[in-house]
Amino acid sequence: MSFPTRLQEVLSEGRAVIRSGIKIACTTGTYGFWNGKGDIIVDGLVYWPNTLITVSEPVYGLGTAASTFTVELVAKRDSGLAPDKLLLIEQEGYKDAPITGFDFYFDPDDRSFLHAEPGPYGFIDTIDHSRENGEKKLIANVRSGAIANHRDGYRTASHEDQQLVSPGDDFFQYASTVKHEVFDIKFD
Fold it and tell me: Does residue 71 share a domain with residue 56?
């Protein structure tokens, strides 16, 4: 993938403006937040401002093991995220909701949006509530996208499924019969 030409220019000059954002796809609604001022629209989704977004560094393991990290959103009117907007996530089905972090790139001269680069992603496990110095915040405990390495998918090693992927490919033509064949073994 290549970056837009203007972004490449400002990156090489060391002048790109970079902000962070997160997208949470709950069961009935998708929400976006970013650490800038004012609402922005990226790929048709409105990202609400919240200058106090915190994403912890993922705790990495070996192999395909899932890591964990947290995303904190503070409900503070002067940060751009009013408590009523934060409560919308609580009213949603957020368990296992996909969450993606982004780097948003802006032109330093006219502040126009240039590009969204996806970063860490995962699935919300739980949401904790905290109150510090009178500020309410939600702390999403996230399991990294590597958790999908251990989930059963909808694909199977069968001839029928292989035809959906590559019509005419007979690699799995006997997979179903071998898988379900019963052997009658007699011991004398």
Answer: yes
